Amino acid sequence: MKKIFLIIAAFAVVVSCEKEIDLELENESGKIVIEGNITDKAGPYIVKITKSVSFTSANEYPAVEGAQVTLSDDAGNSEVLQYIGSGNYKTSTITGEPGRTYTLKVRAEGTEYVSQSKMPQPVTFEGLLQDSFVVAGETSYTLLPVFTDPSVLGNRYLFSFTVNNNPKKFFSEFSDNVNNGMLNQRPLLLPNDDSDPGDIKVVPGDIINVEMQCIDDKVYTFYSALLQLSGSGPGGGTTPSNPPSNISNGALGYFSAHTSEKLSAVIQ
């Protein structure tokens, strides 16, 4: 492996497969879908509330307006979020801090949905290393996130990345069940298939923008299941279902309090 050029960006806010994922997988519609994040970077933070649609429908999720959305922490801070359109509700005062537990309450269409997430302590995202391999004459690229897992067992990580300015996002989850307390050895597999419109094949000169999140166990479980389902749902021969949400009363989606660091790399 060789070191490659890194661009470090500050933020406001066993190998896994990387996939672009849609949140709703089960063939049902009309359920509340909540996607909420709070990070250790400066806000505002956004909670998005929509309605699910069947996987046979176009990916146009109806926005939920008029909800009462409250975000609070275990230090006594609380605020009601402001609706800014398209199902998005925005914070104005609350801040994310590692070690704090955050509670999200959403009252929508006569039902209250509640979720809690504890923000882990940050793990330093030290860099990215590049490698490549050839299969059937085609070169594929990987990036190895450089970080050292803490010695205490139970750390969970989510990596997301985009290629150049393409909004298509790929995800991979890591846990420390293997190689606890060691330098990371698990790479991100970069996309290598442009056979269909909208697909991406990484080539030299592409810029890969990577975000590393330290997440709690329930959010890890959500993304782990979601990645498995998105690889074995429609077209994969398995009946689609929904990943286990950490939100009460049957809502789909997740609420995550996590740390965030970003690095970018140019493929050589």
Topology (elements, then pairings):
Elements: E1 2-3, E2 6-9, E3 32-39, E4 46-51, E5 68-73, E6 78-80, E7 82-85, E8 88-90, E9 101-108, E10 111-118, E11 127-135, E12 138-146, E13 156-163, E14 170-175, E15 188-189, E16 192-193, E17 200-201, E18 207-215, H1 217-232, E19 252-266
Parallel strand pairs: 3-19
Antiparallel strand pairs: 1-11, 2-19, 3-4, 4-8, 5-6, 5-9, 7-8, 9-10, 11-12, 12-15, 13-14, 13-18, 16-17, 18-19
How would you describe this protein?
Strands 2, 3, 4, 7, 8, 13, 14, 18 and 19 form a 9-stranded mixed sheet that branches. Strands 1-11-12-15 form a 4-stranded antiparallel sheet, with no helix packed on it. It has one helix spanning 217-232; strands at 2-3, 6-9, 32-39, 46-51, 68-73, 78-80, 82-85, 88-90, 101-108, 111-118, 127-135, 138-146, 156-163, 170-175, 188-189, 192-193, 200-201, 207-215, 252-266. It is mainly β and 268 residues long.
Features:
single chain, 268 residues, mainly beta, 4-stranded antiparallel beta sheet, 1 helix, disordered N terminus, DUF4249, DUF4249 domain-containing protein
